[in-house]
Design a protein that fits this description.
Blueprint: H1 3-18, H2 21-61, H3 85-106, H4 115-124, H5 133-146, H6 154-171, H7 176-194, H8 198-207, H9 217-237
C-alpha cells in the first residue's frame, strides 16, 4: 500500500474511534434493539390476550369459532358449546361497555383507532406517550376485538408499540428528536411483529406519519432494526413464517412484470 494511503488510514481510524461516533451509533443500536424486544413482547401479550378472549367470548360463551389466517392457529382447543346467535348479538355491546369504561377511566387518550393518536404524539406532543397507554390499550383493544367489536389489530398495536418506544425514551431522558424517532420505531416494531412482516412495519412507520405520499427518512432504519427484532421475538413464542399462505408465483415471460411498473 502506498505511503500516502497508509498515512491517511493512520489518521482517519484513530480520529474516528476517538470522535465518539461509534459509541453514539452503538447506543442508538442498543435502544432500537431494546425497543424491538419490548414491542415484540407487547405483541406477544396482545396476541395471547386476543386468543384467550376469542376462546372465552366467541367459543365458550357463544359457540362461534371464527376462522383464523392460515399461518396463525388457535392456541386453545375448541369447546363443545352450541352456537347461540342471541348471545353473539349482544357480546359486542358487553365488550364495548367494559372496554369504554377502562379507557375513559384510566387513559382517555387511548380511545379510538390508535394510529391517529400515535401520529398526533409524533407531530404535536414531542413523541410523548404516557406509560400507562400501552397497558390500557392492550387490555381494552383485546376486549373489543375478541367480543366481536368493530376493530382490528393494526391500530392498537401501532399505539402500543409507539407507547413502548416513548416510554424507553423517557427512561433514557432522550431529547425530543430522539423521542419521536423511538416512538416511530416502536410503532413499526408493533406492526412488523404481530403481522409477521418486518419490512412492512418499517415502511409503515416511515410513511404513515404524513397524509401525502412521503417518507420520514430518519425513521426507516431505526424502525427496520426494531421491527426485525420484534418479529424474531414474536415468532420465538409462536410460529415462524408469514401470517398468510400464498401460492408460489412464477413468471414465464418478462411481460408479466409490466403491470407492476404502472
Amino acid at each position: 500500500m502506498p505511503k500516502n494511503f497508509t498515512s491517511i488510514f493512520r489518521h482517519i481510524i484513530p480520529s474516528a474511534l476517538t470522535s465518539g461516533r461509534f459509541a453514539i451509533a452503538g447506543k442508538f443500536l442498543f435502544y432500537y434493539v431494546l425497543i424491538g424486544v419490548i414491542a415484540g413482547l407487547g405483541s406477544v401479550a396482545f396476541h395471547y390476550l386476543c386468543q384467550v378472549g376469542f376462546h372465552f367470548f366467541m367459543d365458550y360463551l357463544a359457540g362461534y369459532r371464527p376462522p383464523s389466517p392460515a399461518g396463525e392457529g388457535h392456541l386453545l382447543p375448541p369447546t363443545s358449546t352450541p352456537f347461540n346467535r342471541w348471545l353473539l348479538l349482544f357480546l359486542p355491546a358487553i365488550g364495548g361497555v367494559f372496554s369504554g369504561w377502562l379507557v375513559y377511566t384510566f387513559a382517555p387518550e387511548a380511545e379510538g383507532h390508535g394510529t391517529d393518536a400515535a401520529i398526533d404524539a409524533y407531530h404535536n406532543k414531542g413523541g410523548f406517550v404516557r406509560a400507562r397507554i400501552p397497558i390500557i390499550k392492550t387490555i381494552a383493544s383485546a376486549l373489543t376485538i375478541t367480543s366481536g367489536g368493530s376493530g382490528g389489530r393494526e391500530g392498537p398495536i401501532a399505539q402500543i408499540g409507539a407507547g413502548f418506544g416513548s416510554f424507553l425514551a423517557t427512561v433514557m431522558n432522550s431529547p425530543e428528536r430522539e423521542r419521536r424517532i423511538m416512538l416511530a420505531a416502536g410503532m413499526g416494531a408493533g406492526i412488523g411483529s404481530i403481522f409477521r412482516a418486518p419490512l412492512a412495519g418499517a415502511l409503515f412507520a416511515a410513511e404513515v406519519l404524513y397524509k401525502d405520499p412521503e417518507f420520514e427518512a430518519e425513521v426507516i432504519i431505526p424502525a427496520g432494526i426494531s421491527s426485525v427484532v420484534a418479529y424474531c421475538v414474536f415468532c420465538f413464542f409462536f410460529v415462524w413464517g408469514s401470517l398468510f399462505n400464498s401460492q408460489d408465483v412464477e413468471y414465464q415471460n418478462l411481460l408479466g412484470l409490466g403491470p407492476y411498473a404502472v
